[in-house]
C-alpha cells in the first residue's frame, strides 16, 4: 500500500514538474515570437529614410513651431527633398455631418506630401495639391474609419465648426503608417487650418514637426547642410532636433523589449531548474521501486522490458504534464494580453503544437536516464531491499 502511495506521489510530482517546464518553455517561446517580430520592426524603423524635425525647448522636449518658421526650415533642406508639415488644431473642433456630430474632434493640417511620407494609402479621390494649400481651400481628406460612418449617405461634405468642407479623398493607414502622426482622422491643408479653422496668423505655433524623405543623405549630412544653410540665411536652428520619423515608436518598443527580455530570462531560469527536478524525481521514483523492478527481472523481464516499462510511465506523466502546462500557458497568456491591452504573449496554433512537442521531448529525454538506471539494477540486491 505504501509503495503504491509513493508511486502515485512521484507521478504527481513528475506531472507538476513537467507542467512547470512546459509552461516556462512556452513563455520563452511565445514571448520570443513577439521579441523577434518587435526586433525586426525596430530594425525596419531605423532603416527608414523618412525623418522628422521637431522643436525642443528647455521646458519641453517637443514644442511647436510657427508656420512661417517651419517654411524657413523647409527651405534649408537640400534641393529635391520632399517634405511636409504636421499642424494640429489648438482646441477641439466641432465636426459634424448634416447636423449630426461625429465622434472625432482633432483636425490635422498638412501640405501635399504627407500621405506619401507617412504611409497613408489613398482609397478614393485625391490628396491635397498646391492649389488647395495656396488658396486656403475648404477641402478635407478623411480616414476610412471616419468615412465609413457617413458613406451610406453618399457624403460629399462634412462640417467643421459649422462650415462645409468638401471631401476630396479617402485614405487608410498602411502597415508603414507612422503612429506618431496622431489620431487626426480629418486632414485639411495646413494653410486652411491656420486661416479658417484656427483663424490665426502664420506666427502661431501649431506645427509640431517637419517630415521629410532624406533619400540618399545620411542624418549627419542633413544636419551639416541644415547648419550650413541656416548660417547663410541667418536662421536660428539650435533648438531643432533631427530624428527618425518613428523615433517615438522606437523608444516605446525599446522599453517593451527590455521588459519582455526579463520575462524570458526568468522563464529560462525556472525551466533549467524544472528540468533537473524532473530527472531527480524520476530517478527517485526508480530508487523507491527497486524491489518491484528486481522482482520483474527475477521473473524473466529483459533489460529492454524494464526500460520500456519505466519509459512508458514517465512518458505518460510527461504527456499529462505537457497538457497541463500548455493549458496553463494559454490561460496565462490570454489573461496577460487582456490586462495589458497588447499582444505581448503570442499564443497561437504554433504555440500549442510547440507545447505538445515540448511535452513529448521532455518525456523522452527524462525517461532515458531513469530507465537505463532501472535496467542496470541487480535483481538479487533489489529483492533484499526492505
Task: Output the keywords.
single chain; 386 residues; alpha+beta; 2 domains; 13-stranded mixed β-sheet; 13 strands; 17% strand; elongated
- Low-confidence stretches are none
Radius of gyration: 33 Å
Largest sheet data: 13 strands, mixed
Name the structural class: alpha+beta
What would you note in describing this structure?
The chain is α+β, with helices and mostly antiparallel strands and 386 residues long. The protein has 2 domains: 2-43 and 252-384, no CATH class; 49-245, no CATH class. Helices cover 56% and strands 17% of the residues. The chain is built from 12 helices and 13 strands. It has helices at residues 2-47, 67-76, 114-118, 130-134, 144-150, 190-197, 219-233, 247-288, 290-298, 303-340, 349-375, 379-384; strands at 50-55, 65-66, 83-88, 95-97, 100-101, 107-110, 120-125, 139-143, 157-160, 163-173, 186-189, 205-213, 240-244. Strands 1, 2, 3, 4, 5, 6, 7, 8, 9, 10, 11, 12 and 13 form a 13-stranded mixed beta sheet that branches. The protein starts with a helix and ends with a helix.
How do you describe this structure in short?
By secondary structure, the chain is of the alpha+beta class. It has helices at 2-47, 67-76, 114-118, 130-134, 144-150, 190-197, 219-233, 247-288, 290-298, 303-340, 349-375, 379-384; strands at residues 50-55, 65-66, 83-88, 95-97, 100-101, 107-110, 120-125, 139-143, 157-160, 163-173, 186-189, 205-213, 240-244. Strands 1, 2, 3, 4, 5, 6, 7, 8, 9, 10, 11, 12 and 13 form a 13-stranded mixed β-sheet that branches.
Amino acid at each position: 500500500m505504501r509503495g503504491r502511495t509513493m508511486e502515485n506521489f512521484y507521478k504527481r510530482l513528475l506531472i507538476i514538474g513537467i507542467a512547470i517546464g512546459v509552461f516556462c518553455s512556452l513563455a520563452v517561446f511565445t514571448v520570443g515570437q513577439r521579441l523577434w517580430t518587435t526586433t525586426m520592426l525596430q530594425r525596419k524603423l531605423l532603416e527608414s529614410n523618412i525623418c522628422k524635425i521637431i522643436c525642443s525647448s528647455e521646458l519641453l522636449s517637443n514644442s511647436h513651431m510657427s508656420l512661417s518658421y517651419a517654411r524657413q526650415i523647409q527651405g534649408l533642406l537640400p534641393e529635391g527633398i520632399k517634405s511636409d508639415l504636421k499642424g494640429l488644431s489648438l482646441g477641439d473642433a466641432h465636426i459634424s455631418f448634416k447636423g449630426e456630430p461625429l465622434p472625432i474632434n482633432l483636425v490635422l493640417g498638412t501640405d501635399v506630401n504627407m500621405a506619401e511620407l507617412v504611409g497613408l494609402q489613398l482609397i478614393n479621390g485625391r490628396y491635397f495639391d498646391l492649389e488647395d494649400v495656396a488658396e486656403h481651400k475648404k477641402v478635407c481628406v478623411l480616414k476610412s474609419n471616419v468615412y465609413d460612418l457617413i458613406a451610406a449617405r453618399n457624403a460629399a461634405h462634412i462640417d467643421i465648426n459649422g462650415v462645409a468642407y468638401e471631401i476630396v479623398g479617402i485614405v487608410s493607414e498602411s502597415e508603414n503608417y507612422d503612429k506618431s502622426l496622431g489620431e487626426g482622422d480629418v486632414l485639411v491643408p495646413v494653410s486652411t487650418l491656420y486661416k479658417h479653422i484656427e483663424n490665426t496668423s502664420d506666427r502661431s505655433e501649431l506645427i509640431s514637426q517637419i517630415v521629410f524623405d532624406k533619400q540618399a543623405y545620411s542624418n549627419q549630412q542633413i544636419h551639416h547642410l541644415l547648419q550650413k544653410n541656416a548660417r547663410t540665411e541667418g536662421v536660428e536652428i539650435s533648438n531643432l532636433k533631427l530624428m527618425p520619423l518613428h523615433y517615438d515608436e522606437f523608444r516605446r518598443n525599446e522599453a517593451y523589449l527590455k521588459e519582455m527580455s526579463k520575462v524570458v530570462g526568468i522563464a529560462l531560469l525556472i525551466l533549467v531548474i524544472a528540468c533537473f527536478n524532473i530527472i531527480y524525481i524520476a530517478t527517485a521514483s526508480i530508487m523507491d521501486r527497486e524491489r518491484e523492478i528486481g522482482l520483474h527481472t527475477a521473473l524473466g523481464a529483459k533489460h529492454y522490458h524494464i526500460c520500456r516499462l519505466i519509459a512508458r510511465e514517465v512518458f505518460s506523466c510527461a504527456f499529462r504534464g505537457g497538457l497541463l502546462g500548455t493549458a496553463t500557458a494559454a490561460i496565462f497568456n490570454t489573461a496577460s494580453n487582456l490586462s495589458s491591452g497588447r499582444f505581448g504573449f503570442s499564443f497561437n496554433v504554433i504555440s500549442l503544437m510547440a507545447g505538445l512537442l515540448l511535452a513529448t521531448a521532455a518525456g523522452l529525454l527524462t525517461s532515458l536516464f531513469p530507465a537505463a538506471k532501472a535496467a542496470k539494477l541487480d535483481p538479487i540486491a533489489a529483492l533484499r531491499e526492505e
